[in-house]
Design brief:
It is a single chain. The protein has two domains: 113 residues, NADH Oxidase, CATH 3.40.109; 169 residues, NADH Oxidase. Helix content is 35%, strand content 18%. It starts with a helix and ends with a strand.
Length: 323
């Protein structure tokens, strides 16, 4: 018979597969009986790339959504409290197990996509993403308390410019280059980081893709496509408060999993929100009505070959056991 702590542990293990900036996985789960807490691990922050911790909170929010989906798909329910203690800002969420309920069919569909989702930096082909698919993605984002802007064709050059400007500014910063080097050359036992075999060679793209290989050799070729059928969306909120970034991360997870379940490939593009001036340009694409959290490329890849697995850290979960 599944115990509350067992159900929560299963959800935490599912949450290990959530996306995070540079695959830092900057969170820790602790399970104590019928309660599970999510804490930020600031020693996994990126002071140069993410000085304000915006992407750290988005990453943790994505992990929280993964855990919520796993519980719902398994037929369990938990009460979620976000930022429950103002005196403890690293405590991001508390989940209290409240019992069984009928398994949610939509959650089951989305949960099945957790093991399939990968960040696909390869080129996408000419097959278009439909308006119906974009509408469905917008709805799942809004259900999580955030918003989604589809970048129009005439706005794509500005997205490309903002991403290019951000990338150039970061490359001039030795602290950024050190961070990238650190997180792309992790020991295998660390269970984190971006292995070079998942990096994609730099080629001309509609919107630039971050070069993780730097002076090394990328493990993947971009392919012959030019992202002609891809769509670019900007996930945004109305403020830059921590609570909204956390909800934004939950919305990002919902978007990525829903897209994967629909057969789409995805690539979060955080470069242009990492630097102040390019981020200001993204606000312009939103008509200054919101705060951009992250851009995402969505489309159909030309290459159907499986992407290399990305490491996950099993030590991000602790369970209290009574002696």
């Amino acid at each position: 018979m599944t115990t509350p702590s067992g159900a929560l542990a299963d959800a935490a293990r599912t949450a290990l597969k959530a996306p995070s900036v540079f695959n830092t996985q900057p969170w820790r789960w602790h399970i104590d009986g019928d309660t599970m807490t999510l804490r930020a691990e600031r020693d996994r922050a990126l002071p140069a790339t993410d000085p304000d911790g915006r992407l750290l909170l988005l990453s943790c929010g994505a992990a929280l959504h993964h855990a919520r989906v796993a519980l719902a798909a398994a037929g369990w329910h938990a009460m979620v409290e976000r930022l429950p203690d103002p005196a403890d800002p690293e405590l991001l969420a508390r989940l209290t197990f409240t019992g069984a309920r009928p398994a949610d069919a939509q959650a089951e569909r989305v949960a099945a996509a957790v093991g399939l989702r990968r960040t696909d930096r390869r080129s996408y082909g000419d097959r278009p993403v439909t308006e119906a698919q974009l509408t469905a993605l917008r709805r799942v984002v809004e259900a999580e308390g955030a918003y989604l802007h589809t970048v129009s064709r005439d706005q794509v050059p500005m997205l490309a410019i903002s991403t290019e400007l951000a990338g150039a500014a970061e490359q001039r910063d030795p602290r950024y280059r050190e961070e990238l080097e650190h997180w792309t050359h992790r020991p295998a036992e660390a269970g984190d980081g971006v292995p070079l075999n998942t990096a994609v060679e730099p080629v001309l793209r509609r919107v630039p893709v971050r070069d993780y290989a730097q002076d090394g050799v990328a493990g993947l070729q971009a392919g012959a496509g030019y992202d002609a059928g891809a769509e670019y969306v900007i996930l945004f909120g109305l403020t830059d408060r921590p609570a909204d970034f956390l909800r934004g991360g939950e919305a990002l997870s919902a978007l990525l999993l829903a897209a994967t379940a629909d057969g789409l490939a995805t690539e979060p593009i955080s470069d242009s929100v990492e630097v102040a001036w390019p981020r200001h340009l993204l606000r312009g694409l939103l008509s200054d009505i919101g705060e951009p959290y992250v851009a995402v490329r969505v489309g159909y890849p030309l290459d159907s070959a499986d992407l290399p697995p990305v490491p996950r850290r099993a030590d991000a979960i602790s369970i209290r056991t009574d002696s």
